[in-house]
Write a structure and sequence with these properties.
single chain, 433 residues, alpha+beta, Chloramphenicol Acetyltransferase, 2 domains, 7-stranded mixed β-sheet, 6-stranded mixed β-sheet, 16 strands, 27% helix, globular, disordered N terminus
Length: 433
């Protein structure tokens, strides 16, 4: 792994990338991306680690390449390329040229990777393929896969997928369909691919304040100097059932709340702690952003296996001083209000708002929480058993915090974030409850 100087000791030798097109001819032409897809056009990198099994991994390259070719028939937009429509929005040109596939060899055993719950982007980054010289997302195919074999017989599947193609639920349905195809046990259920069901209304109608797009003033916040002057440290904090129950007790003890979920209380707890650790000005406003699954909140609900983003960002804005001087129940209440706000009407309004403004959500003075704790990353079996580890390579932005499930029953939650070094030290203290 790393030595004291930070040098990456995981050496990976990569072959030249090849293209994997769909096995048969698929639809060509332009494929519509909804306004919910437009807002999160970033590449998400994840890895899946598989240890050596009785089944030989000699065929792993061929097996994964052939099964990818098959599953791309149903998920054909992933074989296309992103471009810009006449309206100035992202759209997929379904060229059918294929996903990028890279074979690689590591000169060590899989155990050398260590525990990936605390990502080391410099090391784990060698397990995914980055398109050389790519200056923007239009130059990066929607799906890039790297398969790295290790000396022990284990291998790692590293994926780089653009978030505009699907949210976490959709991504897992794709990966699990690929895995089912690889095992050859069943024929995966095709996705629902028509995203035009989320087209803007005519006429457009914005009937909510969409503060997720509001740019807060952080000119006097110490965060600017901290990020410029100090190293960004990544840390993972594990919350087992005992700790989660303890935080819930803290939130409920003043009798303000009737109930609260694990996500609500943990989001509130982390928002407060990060704001305090960063030393934000008490008179400045801070924003919490997080995604809510809108599939069942839309009327009618999105179809099963909807291929696209069914999530919508909701928010809460509060002065830092109010956040820290009030009890934890107050912050949990803010999170609950943000969730309640997400109705069919709100989602349609958000779609129309983007159509009118083309604004992107602002991350100034913001904590953006992404929840992967309900995603079934751990059961993906390509024929070599379930992964021994899986998770992100890095966080896409410094303002992002990730909630990941952990433990044997996946009921514990790892909170992963990056902070400037001095803020991380204070954050660690605040986590000791």
């Amino acid at each position: 792994m790393d030595n004291s100087s930070g040098e990456v000791l995981l050496r990976v030798y990569k072959n030249e990338p090849t293209l994997v097109p769909p096995m048969v001819e698929t639809k060509h032409g332009l494929y519509y991306l909804s306004n919910l897809d437009q807002n999160i056009a970033v590449t998400v990198q994840t890895i899946y680690c598989f240890k050596s099994q009785d089944k030989s991994n000699e065929q792993v390259f061929d097996t994964l390449r052939e099964s990818l070719s098959k599953v791309l028939v149903d998920f054909y937009p992933l074989a296309g390329r992103l471009t810009v429509s006449d309206e100035g929005k992202l759209i997929v040109d379904c060229t059918g040229e294929g996903a990028v596939f890279v074979e690689a060899q590591a000169e060590c055993d899989l155990v050398k990777i260590g525990d990936i719950t605390k990502p080391d982007p410099s090391m784990l980054g060698t397990l995914v393929y980055n398109i050389p010289g790519a200056k923007n997302i239009l130059e990066i195919p929607p799906l890039v896969a790297q398969v790295t074999r290790f000396k022990c017989g284990g291998f790692v599947l590293g994926l780089a997928m653009n978030h505009c193609m699907f949210d976490g639920i959709g991504a897992m349905e794709f990966v699990n369909s690929w895995a089912e195809t690889s095992r050859g046990t069943t024929s995966p259920i095709p996705p629902f691919s028509n995203r035009s069901i989320l087209k803007p209304r005519n006429p457009l109608f914005v009937n909510f304040p969409h503060n997720e797009f509001t740019e807060l003033d952080d000119s006097s916040n110490s965060s600017i100097n901290l990020y410029q002057e100090e190293a960004l440290l990544y840390q993972s904090f594990n919350f087992n059932q005992e700790r989660l129950n303890h935080i819930k007790t803290l939130a409920m003890q003043d009798g303000t709340l009737e109930k609260c979920t694990t996500f609500e209380v943990l989001a509130a707890f982390v928002w407060r702690a990060r704001s305090e650790a960063m030393g934000f000005d008490p008179n400045k406003r801070t924003k919490l952003l997080f995604a809510v699954d809108g599939r069942s909140r839309l009327n009618p609900p999105l179809p099963n296996r909807y291929f696209g983003n069914g999530i919508v960002l909701t928010n809460s804005i509060c002065k830092v001083g109010e956040l820290l001087s009030n009890p934890l129940s107050y912050t949990v209440g803010l999170v609950q209000d943000a969730i309640k706000m997400v109705t069919d009407d709100y989602i349609r309004s958000a779609v129309d708002y983007f159509e009118m403004t083309r604004l992107r959500p602002s991350l100034a003075s913001t904590l953006l929480i992404t929840t992967w704790s309900r995603l079934d990353f751990h059961s993906t079996d390509f024929g070599w058993g379930e992964p021994v580890q899986s998770g992100p390579v890095t966080l896409p932005e410094k303002e992002v915090t990730l909630f990941l499930s952990s433990g044997k029953e996946k009921k514990n939650i790892n909170v992963l974030l990056g902070l400037p070094s001095s803020a991380m030290e204070r954050f660690k203290e605040l986590m000791e409850i």
